[in-house]
Amino acid sequence: MESAFSSFHVDKDFLSVIFDSIHDGIKIVDKDGKFIFINRSAEKNMNIVRDEWIGRSVHELLPESIILKALKTEVPQINKHSFVCNKNFIVHASPLTFKGKLVGAISTHKDEDEIESLKASFDHFTLNKYIHFLENELHRVQILPLEMKGFVVSKNSTIVNELSKIKKLAPTDISVLIRGESGVGKEVIARNIHELSNRIGNPYITINCAAIPENLLESELFGYEEGAFTGAKRSGKKGKFELANGGTIFLDEIGDMNYHLQAKLLRVLQQKELVRVGGEETIPLDVRVIAATNKDLVSMIQHNTFREDLYYRINGITFNIPPLRERKMDIDILISHFLKEFSYKYNKKIGISKEAHYFLLNHPLPGNVRELRNVLEHGFVLAETNEIEIEDLPKSITSGQIQESSSAPLFTSDEPVPLSTFFDSMDLSENIKKVEIALIIKALTKSNNNRSKAIKMLGISRQSFYERLKKYEKEIAQYSN
Ligand SMILES: Nc1ncnc2c1ncn2[C@@H]1O[C@H](COP(=O)(O)OP(=O)(O)OP(=O)(O)O)[C@@H](O)[C@H]1O
Any idea where the PAS domain is (predicted)? Predict the structure, then answer.
């Protein structure tokens, strides 16, 4: 779903997941009648290949369709009978308008046979149940975008302080530099700034300066004209800045941009206009710039690898996002947030065992929030019970480190918990504490909180058990019922 629909600011992959999980067929066309989305049910019950329809015109493919009528007349078409693809359907179609302008049309349809069989089987009771189901579905679909909008989840005081700035700076055009390691959530913040700004409704374009080969980055950013270089498209191409015109551009990994291009970028930002590569025409720009980096730009300036003038141009205000290891408190709420997200995405409810939870809290997670999300999603998908267990997490984090870093494993029992992966530092007493807490929690969990049984499992005296319980009261309480 592109163009006008990007203005709704709901992640398009996510929107596709929602629509694909809806039983009714859904089709969306843009204002010119081009198919921009067809959900899985529509593909199935119309017996078509949706990828072959996307981008093609409804005028050509379904000239008699109800969706085309809604688009042409700009009047909703409710409960209309339609015969397409050799089947009868009941269709609702509505024009889609945004900020008073027609941007396309949407239709939902049900197979008529299905409606007939539904009618036959509906008594009052089932009808009520069906209404209840639809209400739940509607609620689910309505709250999804909010849950998933990618708002920044954090309890960390540094981040909370930083975030409090967003509301103030978002409506201005001040440039923003976001600093932090990979995966800490820099893009989430950039998107939030755009969404809270007056530019909402206009494009939000991202480009990762490190991911594009140096020789292509210039034309990716500023576009090119026909024949600008070998392999250039006949018609030329708009660059990311032009695509972002009126909206926001997020320049990720700006520290990886070469010195020559930095000079060109600075010129574009200062003059608020650009000339495409190989072109002559000057294109005026109105783009808000948000940049991000993992690099120390100040030291790069000292080493003449980053331009000082560009640094001051992009650094109107700076956000510093600490890595996850410096805000362990956030792991808890991020886990809850992601479990909620996945339960919508996969349509099932799964929790996390205390051990897996504790494991994640103590795992280094160098890939920050992105790694936490990936690891949890892996566990969510593989979990065989209604809780993610340590065994469901990727082997790379539960066992990789042991094999690589210790020739003689400290624990060789049948423990599913590879305890030595907790040892992200050499501090002996800190590590002993972690092991003790993990084993006490495990014994309590296994014994259903029966302390006598837990003491027996641990093979320690009652006195020593209670001493430790007191000592680690806070940590254990967090994981006990
Ligand atoms: N505070 C947060 N709340 C909710 N989700 C978050 C948060 N921080 C990060 N995420 C999620 O973690 C993943 C990585 O975040 P993001 O892409 O913003 O990181 P980044 O710092 O821009 O990474 P990179 O520098 O590698 O591009 C995304 O799926 C994002 O939705």
Answer: 11-62
